[in-house]
Amino acid sequence: MGRLDGKTVVLTAAAQGIGRASAEAFAREGARVIATDINVDKLKELDSIKGIETYKLDVTNMAEIESLAAKIDIVDVLFNCAGYVHNGTLLETDEKGWDMSFDINVKSMYRMCKIFIPKMISRGEPACIINMSSVASSIKGVPNRCVYSTTKAAVIGLTKSIAADYCEKKIRCNCVCPGTVDTPSLAGRINALEDPEKSLKDFVARQKMGRFASADEVASLVLYLASDESVYVTGQPFIIDGGWSL
What we know:
The chain is α/β, with parallel strands linked by helices. It has eight helices and nine strands. The protein has helices at about 15-30, 40-45, 60-70, 95-125, 145-165, 185-190, 195-205, 215-225, and strands at about 10, 30-35, 50-55, 75-80, 125-130, 170-180, 180, 215, 235-240. Helix 1 crosses helix 8 and helix 4 (about 95-125) runs parallel beside helix 5 (about 145-165).
């Protein structure tokens, strides 16, 4: 028996990183996994895994979300993983970067929840939502992450609001707040810097455990929140950062 046997999971940003590790973990535990991403080429690599169905999805496009939802009758778990990391202080952040960050990091979750919560309510069965936040939020101030941290603080607020509004409808909502995670996204950001080798050392130096988290380690927490093991948990931000926020 898998921990998610008989459950249908919808998740965004499944092509790589935490999203991909989570999709694979969900499938191993017996779920029907609706894995979505805008990166179709990477996403298709999941097609060979039993239990995973892949769909192209732009989380900034409400029409695409509605089209996807029309193909799915039952949703037990929604994992909003899509996000964008903007680099810079407030004075270095223009309105375009500010608006894009909120659109991808916060409004995308609004869109997904707006479409999928009614499906959860109509069944009358327990369901859950997991949102991707970050330690760089209301939890910890991080240099050069102004709008990113602001959006991730908003995700914590959104999570608590959804939890409060829909608890009596049997819908739980929690968020995951990682520190620095070893993902293709992180590697890409580091390699784009002026001195990637020094930047990598600086990133590692700020980790109290002396290393980054792996995507699989974060996926294990996501899996717990998706399973019935966390049935009495709602409205909570879960920190997984190796002690960075201490």
